Structures are given as C-alpha cells and as structure tokens.
C-alpha cells in the first residue's frame, strides 16, 4: 500500500458519509438489475412500509407520469396523494411483493394487497419505467377479490 494514511482517511470519510441510499446514482448503473433493485426499494418504502412521500422523493423523477386511470392528472403529486389517501382511509391495508423482474428500462412487480385482516385480496401487476436511475412512468393492472373463481390455480 503506497500511502496507508490516505487510505485510512478515505475509509473514515466513506464511513462518516453513511451508506448511500438505494437508488441513488452512486448505487445505480442503469442496468436491469439496478433498475429492479431501485423499484423494489421504492415499492417497499412507499407501500410495504407505508411511506409514499419519502419513497417518491427518493426514487421518482419530478416529471413522473402516472398512467393509472383513477389518479387525476397523472402527476407525481397526484400519485403521492392517491397512495397517501389509501393508507389513511384503509389503515390496515398491507402490501406484499411476491416477485419482480426487469427487462431493459422496465421493471415488473407482482404484488398482493390485503385491505384488512380476513378481507379478500387484490392482485397487483405494476410496471415501472426507469430512466437515469429514477422512476419516470408507472402502469398497473389491479384484480379485485373474487369469490367465484373457476380456475383452480391461484393468482399468486
């Protein structure tokens, strides 16, 4: 080692800075795997941990486009308000990521949302587009609870 003092200073500086947040440019190289990790971190913070505002601030581009038809205007702010409203209005709702996959700049999440203990579950298929290590678009397909399934294979 040429200069152990410089190495020690670099290590101390890195430790003092703390760990980089998932999804920040230092951790993201734009690869499908990095995009998947970013989206899973976003989904986990925003829905599983029920903190949509911090999730959007950390992982979503300011000019984000929401394609969900029941979010007025399709903006980032409207999406935050919509998710915050669900969490406020259905305080027992729980989200669970079942699987995820990435292809190029698209990340797919298959999730389950249970509004209340014992309630019917919703099947969620979310698609996110990532650009420059930020989520820039979102689409979803939501399947509500069903009591009359004729297919023996579950959604999950």
TrEMBL record:
Query: What Pfam families does this protein map onto?
Result: SnoaL_2
Stored Gene3D superfamilies: 3.10.450.50
The residue ranges of the SnoaL-like domain are 40-138
Which residues belong to the signal peptide in this entry? 1-22
Judging by the UniProt lineage, the source's domain of life is: Bacteria
Which key words tag this protein in UniProt?
A: Signal
Name the chain's protein. Answer: Putative SnoaL-like aldol condensation-catalyzing enzyme
What is the organism field in this record? Brevundimonas lenta
């Amino acid at each position: 080692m040429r200069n152990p003092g410089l190495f020690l200073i670099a290590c101390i500086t890195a430790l003092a800075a703390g760990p980089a947040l998932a999804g920040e440019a230092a951790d993201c190289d734009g690869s499908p795997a990095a995009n998947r990790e970013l989206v899973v971190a976003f989904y986990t913070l925003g829905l599983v941990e029920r903190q949509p505002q911090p999730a959007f601030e950390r992982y979503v581009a300011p000019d984000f486009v929401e394609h969900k038809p029941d979010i007025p205007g399709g903006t980032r702010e409207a999406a935050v308000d919509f998710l915050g409203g669900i969490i406020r209005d259905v305080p027992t709702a729980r989200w669970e990521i079942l699987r995820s996959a990435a292809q190029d700049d698209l990340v797919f999440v298959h999730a389950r949302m249970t509004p209340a203990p014992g309630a019917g579950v919703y099947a969620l298929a979310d698609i996110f587009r990532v650009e420059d290590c930020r989520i820039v678009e979102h689409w979803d397909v939501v399947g509500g609870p069903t009591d009359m399934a004729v297919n023996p294979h579950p959604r999950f």
